[in-house]
Write a structure and sequence with these properties.
The chain has 398 residues and is of the alpha/beta class. The chain contains 14 helices and 12 strands. Helix 12 (303-307) links the parallel strand 8 (289-292) and strand 9 (316-322). Helix 2 packs across helix 6, helix 8 (185-205) packs across helix 10 (230-248) and helix 9 (216-224) packs antiparallel against helix 10 (230-248). The chain is globular. The termini are close together.
């Protein structure tokens, strides 16, 4: 057991300039030098792990550098059974079949018209329907083993407490789809869960922790309510929580953490689902910890939700104590205040310092400048040291 507050983050970090040209070629389907890309990827991961250690991060990631699409859509290259086609007029009206933009987008169209072009996003149109038209199988064995090997090589060169890979949850892997193969949604989602379990297990078997990313679970609320009701949304979400539990069967719970956010973009977020409306579903998960937004000005007040529920004693809280959505670098004293607040709820041994979300949503979308990213992680580490001194006494934290 540690006698200090450990630090980590959500996983995705700003991609280095030398790696981006390769990612652009891959994104556009153009020819590229595979051996040069593999070498650059390996070097980039080794460098970003070293930088995390220098910034004071205890539990490091590969920065998600090995993913050639976003944190969620990367899995589409590793799962069979799905395809895309143009949406029919009926599907275009179905919030669960196509990629509608949600109420925030509808309420602030002028803002989003200016904002989206600045974000480097490859926006997928809502007129496209993802269709499950065959058996779901995991086919990403080579990719995940490459990711594991690159992270192993990187951590072998530094001293860290641990390392993790972020992996997508069933709800976020294919949040909107048309089922044309399985008898019902549960059958589809449980088949997807069994496929994803192969990726989860591979990383755990390699000795790393895993983080299950599930931003679409809370974010879908503003996309479908209305026309659906909160009760209908909760039914939708609970089935996906059950599917994730199915995926986690037989895996080491204490090595698994679950991450939610309400969408990483720095926008109004006025229609986000309140944490109080989903906290009971999250507590059903067989995971060792929860990483969630706690520095976000729309959600920081929800620390009181954690205070007011019964949290299983085998769960660790990993509140975001630094924000990915502002270039203002948090003061270490504020970071410490946030950590102590959660330690007062569950005890000092069950709190870890985290970030709200990734500093990059994907290869081409960064939320802050990389120099700010590292400044924030250093402030987090300093804040964790201050919190440690408060919680264990001066001189603690070896």
């Amino acid at each position: 057991m540690h006698n200090r507050i450990l630090t980590t983050h959500v996983g995705s970090l700003v991609r280095p300039p030398k790696l981006v040209p390769f990612l652009e070629e891959i994104e556009e389907g153009r020819p590229y030098d595979r051996s040069a890309y593999d070498a650059c990827l390996n070097e980039s991961i080794a460098e970003v792990v070293r930088q995390q250690v220098e910034a004071g991060v205890d539990i490091v990631s590969d920065g998600e550098f090995g993913k050639t699409d976003t944190w969620a859509w990367y899995i589409h290259q590793r799962i069979s059974g799905f395809s895309e086609r143009a949406a029919t007029p009926e599907e275009a009206k179905d919030p669960l079949a196509t990629r509608s933009m949600g109420r925030d987008f509808a309420a602030f169209p002028e803002f989003y018209a200016e904002y989206f072009p600045t974000q480097g996003l490859r926006v997928r149109p809502g007129s496209v329907t993802t269709v499950c038209n065959g058996p779901i199988r995991y086919i990403g064995h080579a990719q995940v083993q490459r990711d594991i090997a690159n992270l192993k090589a990187a951590v072998s060169k530094v001293k860290v407490e641990d390392a993790f890979l972020p992996l997508v949850a069933p709800a976020s892997a294919f949040p909107f789809y048309k089922n044309e193969y399985y008898q019902d949604d549960q059958s589809l989602l449980f088949a997807l869960a069994e496929a994803l379990r192969e990726e989860y297990k591979a990383v755990l078997d390699a000795g790393f922790r895993i983080q299950i990313d599930d931003a679409f679970l809370p974010y879908t609320y503003e996309r479908i309510v209305p026309p659906l009701t909160l009760a209908q949304y909760r039914d939708w979400a609970e089935l996906r929580i059950d599917a994730l539990n199915h995926a986690l069967e037989g895996l080491s719970q204490e090595r698994i953490r679950y991450h939610i956010c309400w969408g990483s973009w720095n926008a109004p977020h006025v229609f986000d689902v309140p944490l109080r409306d989903i906290i009971d579903l999250l507590l059903k998960l067989r995971v060792g910890g929860y990483q969630f937004e706690a520095a976000n000005v729309r959600h920081e007040h929800e620390w009181k939700v954690w205070r007011d529920v019964k949290i299983p004693e085998d769960r660790v809280l990993i509140p975001g104590v630094i924000s990915h959505a502002t270039n203002v670098v948090e003061h270490p004293e504020l970071v410490a205040d946030r950590l102590v607040r959660y330690a007062d709820i569950v005890g000092r041994e069950r709190v870890m310092a985290g970030s709200d979300c990734g500093f990059a949503q994907g290869p081409f979308t960064r939320r802050v400048h990389p120099t700010i990213q590292w400044a924030k992680l250093k402030a987090q580490a300093e804040g964790a040291r201050i919190a440690t001194a408060r919680l264990w006494g001066q001189g603690a934290g070896s």
